[in-house]
Amino acid sequence: MTVLKLTAAALVASVAFAGAASARDQIQIAGSSTVLPYAKIVAETFGETFTNFKTPVVESGGSGAGLKEFCKGVGEATIDIANSSRPINKSEVEACKAAGVTEIQEVRIGYDGIVFAADSGNGDMKIEPKDLYKALAAEVVVDGKLVANPYKNWSDINPTLPKGPIAAYIPGSKHGTREVFEEKIMAEGCKKAGAADVIKAAITDAKQAAAKCVAIRKDGVAVDIDGDYTETLARISANKTGLGVFGLAFYENNMDKLKVATVEGVVPSTETISSGKYPVSRPLFFYVKKAHLGVIPGLKEYVEFFTSDAMVGPDSPLAEYGLVAAPDAQREQVRKDFAAGKTM
Amino acid sequence: MSQVVTPTATVPGARTPRRDIGLKKRYAAERRFRAYGIAALSFGLIFLFVLLWSVVSKGYTAFQQTGVTLAVEFSEKIIDPQNQRASNPQVLLTANYPVLARNALANALGVAQNDRAKQKELGQMLSDGVRSQLRDMVVADPSIIGKTKTVTLLAAGDIDSAFKGQINLSVPQENRKVSDQQVGWMNKLAEAGALAKHFNTGIFFNGASSRPEAAGVGVALIGSFYMMLIVLVLSLPIGVAASIYLEEFAPKNRFTDLIEVNINNLAAVPSIVYGLLGLAVFINFMGLPRSASLVGGFVLTLMTLPTIIIATRAALKAVPPSIRAAALGLGASKMQTIFHHVLPLAMPGILTGTIIGLAHALGETAPLLLIGMVAFVANFPTTPMDPSTALPVQIYMWANEAERAFVERTSGAIIILLLFLIVMNVGAILLRRRFERRW
After folding, report:
1. Where are the alpha helices (DSSP H) in B193-270?
2. Which of A271-280, B144-153, B214-223: highest mean pLDDT?
3. What is the number of other CB atoms lying within 10 angstroms of the CB of residue B172?
4. In order of start, what are the domains of chain A with their CATH numbers?
5. How far apart are alpha carbons B411 and B18 in whole angstroms?
6. How far is B43 from chain A (nearest CA, A)?
7. Average pLDDT estimate for B89-118
8. Fewer C-beta neighbours within 10 Å, C or N terminus of chain A?
9. Phi, psi of A134, rounded to the nearest 5 degrees
10. Burial of B14 by CB count in 10 Å (0-12 exposed, 13-18 middle, 19+ buried)?
């Protein structure tokens, strides 16, 4: 019996080596968990519309992890597209180059809003970046001096915020959302609260001063969420005075459980985000390996399908899910750039 | 030695107090220990019950799916207005099928064709999957064009959730996904009997989908099946051969001690480490495809091997030396002794260990993350070389979805996984019962 099984094992192994040589006929995508739901919708519709191509495989894992896989090299063993909720870094472009991925095409698919929401039992909330900065920064300015954050209750800062102790559930550092949060809320609030000047006077190095501005307090009040928005939602349901950070699409799917806050007086919605009124938003991207176009069947068609108005326009399935469509001219430009083969 | 010692015990009729041997204390200790045991057991059972209750109470609804039975007119005007299908079959693939379904719904509810806003709301009540459902019907049998057929279409995920009472309809309609109008239509259709819950076969057979109503664990089941097959075929013979050698043939020295320590260590290594190894060796070095269940199977084999080796060695050790001695005494070679006598007697233990190892591998996600199996895969894998996912991965992916309808599906998938685990573990017990020998 054992001999028989050993033979079977050898067979499986030999299939493995023989199969490795066969061509890949399925697009492989990896990257951002924010872009994942959009990529899934497009991939599924693509598979249904183009019956001659297989449905692409979309992995999640985060923007950084996706770009790292993307920059591993050129060839069928590497992925074709990296989804990203932030622009690719210089260091990543260089890593790509070193591995032979010299031609990368950037495609901007639209915008994603970042909303602040608490449990639905709360009243109307108005958020100013400076309030959140005061609530969440590691050190704040009191009487012209930098001190460890003394605030305990939301009401110490702004009476419209939830009543009770400060608690915030913010995306962990592996998420692209964290960068946007730091840039658009913490750095902005730091300036508006007047802390930036005090910090600049104390620290001469510009980089360190900027880092100090966005440093989050570590006394357990601000909680990094490394999982997904479902975890944030669970935390908020358990802690009624907690404020959570969500993507617009997630919020729109769970409106009955969440009370959204206005930021600088603007209610987050696809309209306010596309017009640029709502301050906390970010562009979403995916990156295509030019060398794979024409080699992997359907790759070119997939990108064209993704960028078409039927997918990312204002009246499309992605917009329905929560993507904020880019302005008409920008979408046209993205299509033109891709058709012209423009690389980074 | 003249003194005569009369032992007190021998004096007849004299009753001395019984020596205190701590009987009371010992009984009390035993009772306490039993109480601790029962407390620990009931503590565990309570948690098991809470877990099962939360999964089953949330998940049982996933096995039902709301469908709308409508008389769909396969109008030629919409499918093929220029009558080109004979010359250009592509027309049938790209036709606007959702309009057919929407019109059928509008007819059933008496909504005017020119009311654009209401038509849009109507369209949102049906799954986007109707496009491929109706298209497949037409492509399979183009002669139905121009006819009217009764078809059961999938309701959209939000309508499904609302019909099952999972969306709080008491909040203002701006704060939920379904409008009052849609709820009204839903109730009207339900009264007419057109909208009803059916048994959800899709959750077992469909591939992954971004639409909750059309999502299923089909691809994940096949992926898990391939992986289990590979794990079984590879790890059982390798593990058993390794343990037989280590237990029966290998000399006992420092080197084999070192190997034993390493095997025990490997059994405790976090599974993500095997994922890293798999990525480096199987994908980057050997060039096997990403997301393939073959690579997943290899990685899980590495992970399961130590468990099987440890279980097999324990089972071999448990075979009494008298069996070996008797076989050797009758002139059997060492090889014959092991394969004819020791191994068959150790088989129940080995199989139990293997099934427990397999069950462990079945529930593993971490090592699959790095080899690209935590992915959205809609196409069914035909060979282990094709991309696929695994059951626990599907649970993880669904748990992260934003739509309400995925909540019940997550629990539903957990129920399916639990059923598989129960079947495997019951199998292990039965095997043990059937073949177990006592000496």
Report:
1. 202-205, 218-244, 254-268
2. B214-223
3. 9
4. 22-111+282-339 (3.40.190.10), 113-281 (3.40.190.10)
5. 64
6. 24
7. 84
8. N
9. -65, -35
10. exposed
At B192, list the tokens.
């007419």
Render pLDDT for B13-32 as a digit per residue (tens, 0 to 9): 567 777 788 888 999 999 99
Say yes or no to pLDDT of B154 above 70: yes
B203: CB partners within 8 A, 6+ apart: B62, B63, B65, B215, B216, B217, B409, B412, B413, B416
Residue B439: pLDDT band (50, 70, 90) is: low
φ/ψ of residue A195, rounded to 5: -80, -30
Stretches in chain A below the pLDDT threshold 50: 1, 14, 17-21
Residue A118 neighbours by CB distance under 10 Å: 24
Q: Does the beta carbon of A61 lie under 8 angstroms from any beta carbon of chain B?
A: yes
Note the ipTM here. 0.81
Q: Please tell me the predicted confidence (pLDDT) of residue A9.
A: 54
Which residues of chain A lie closer than 8 angstroms to B230, CB-CB? 12
Interface subset of B 372-401, CB within 8 angstroms of A: 372, 374-379, 383-387, 397, 399-401
Q: Which helix (H) or strand (E) holds B148?
A: strand B148-154
**How far lies B52's CA from each of A313, B412, B418, in Å?**
44, 12, 10
Structure tokens at A35: 């872009």
Report the DSSP pairing between strands A167-171 and A139-142. Answer: unpaired
The pLDDT score that the predictor gives to residue A183 is 85
Contact A9 B234 (CB under 8 A): yes
CB A161 within 8 A of CB A111: no
Neighbouring-strand partners of residue A293 = A296
Of B128, B238, B400, the CB nearest to A228: B400
Q: Decide: pTM greater than 0.80.
A: yes
**Beta strands per DSSP E along chain A:** 28-31, 57-59, 81-84, 104-119, 125-127, 139-142, 145-148, 167-171, 222-225, 242-247, 258-263, 281-289
Contact A270, A74 (CB under 8 A): no
Altogether, the residues listed in chain B come to a count of 439
Distance CA A213, CA B392 (A): 41
Q: Where are the domains of chain B?
A: 61-200, 218-435
Residue B1 confidence (pLDDT) above 70? no
Question: Closest Cα partner for A173 from A161, A160, A186?
Answer: A186
CB A313 within 8 A of CB A302: no
In the predicted model, what is the mean pLDDT of chain B?
88
Q: What is the CATH number of domain B218-435?
A: 1.10.3720.10
* pLDDT(B263) > 50: yes
Listed residue (B197, B195, B193) closest to B164, CA to CA: B197
Confirm if B321 and B340 have CB atoms less than 8 A apart: no
Cα separation, A66 vs B51, whole angstroms: 34
Q: Which helix (H) or strand (E) holds B183?
A: helix B180-192
CB A74 within 8 A of CB A102: no
A258: closest chain B residue by CA = B175
Structure tokens given for A279: 């301050």
Q: A321 - beta bridge partners?
A: none
- B289 inside 8 A of chain A by CB: yes
- pLDDT above 80 for B260: yes
Distance CA B243, CA B315 (A): 10
- DSSP 3-state assignment of A21? coil
Q: How far apart are CA B254 and CA B257, in angstroms?
A: 5
Tokens of A64: 């950084």
CA distances from B128 to A45, B96, B204 (A): 9, 12, 19
Written as one letter, the residue type at B91 is V
| Dihedral of alpha carbons B168, B171, B172, B176, sign | negative
